[in-house]
Amino acid sequence: MMFATNFADPAVVLPLAIVAALMLAFTGWWCGAALWLVVVGATLGTMAVLKVALFACGPVRFGGLVESPSGHTASAAIIYGGLAALVARRCGAGVVPAFLPAPIAAALIGLSRMALDAHTLPEVVIGGAVGSAGTLALLLLTGTPPPRLPLPRLLAPALVVVVVMHGYQLHAEAELHALAVHYRWIASFCSARGEP
């Protein structure tokens, strides 16, 4: 399961997101590259905010205990699902078929996270929902990629990044936890509102 889950580790998906943006820009689709960076950044930023808030305020109940939504699951949905969505749209698929890889990627990585006891089902569902929403936003904002977008030039560097970086781990969760401890005012805000 660790082999599968490592595909969505920040050490893989962050360089992959940057390389994908560069490739979109180098092919001349500047608008697509900018929207990719904005949507991916917003999606991963949303997950970081959720994690810091939950670390600071303590777990909540959402169909089960939620201590830290799954960033791996969100990353899989927005990065792999987002790239698949752009490729599918470039090949003429509609929005719905292009969107489907995002929840599938989220489900596959989510299952690996649960099998490793890294996350609960609600944490995986939240991560998958945030990542899939990011992919849907990407689809709606970018529209159909230009027909001149060369798929091999886009996908080959992405594949190289995944192969080279797979197995490396970036322990972002520890950094976010330290950030939550640093900003203790978040916890005092939660306490003032009567939350745990």
Would you mind describing this structure in some detail?
By secondary structure, this protein is mainly alpha-helical. The protein has one domain (2-192). 74% of the residues lie in helices and 2% in strands. The protein is built from ten helices and two strands; from the N terminus they run H-H-H-E-E-H-H-H-H-H-H-H. It has a two-stranded antiparallel ribbon with strand order 1-2. Helix 4 packs antiparallel against helix 6 (101-115). The longest helix is centred in the N-terminal third of the chain and has 28 residues, at 30-57. The chain is globular. The model has no long low-confidence stretch (mean pLDDT 87).
Compose a concise summary of this entry.
By secondary structure, this protein is an all-alpha fold. Helices cover 74% and strands 2% of the residues.
Strand content: under 5%
**What is the domain tally?**
1
Straight-line distance between termini = 33 Å
Number of strands: 2
- Judged by helices, strands and strand pairing, the structural class is mainly alpha
Helix content: over 70%
Give the overall shape, derived from the CA principal axes.
Answer: globular
Q: Any idea what the radius of gyration is?
A: 17 Å
Question: What is the N-to-C succession of helices and strands?
Answer: HHHEEHHHHHHH
Q: Sheet with the most strands?
A: 2 strands, antiparallel
Strand order of the largest sheet: 1-2
Low-confidence stretches: none
The total of helices stands at 10
Mean pLDDT: 87
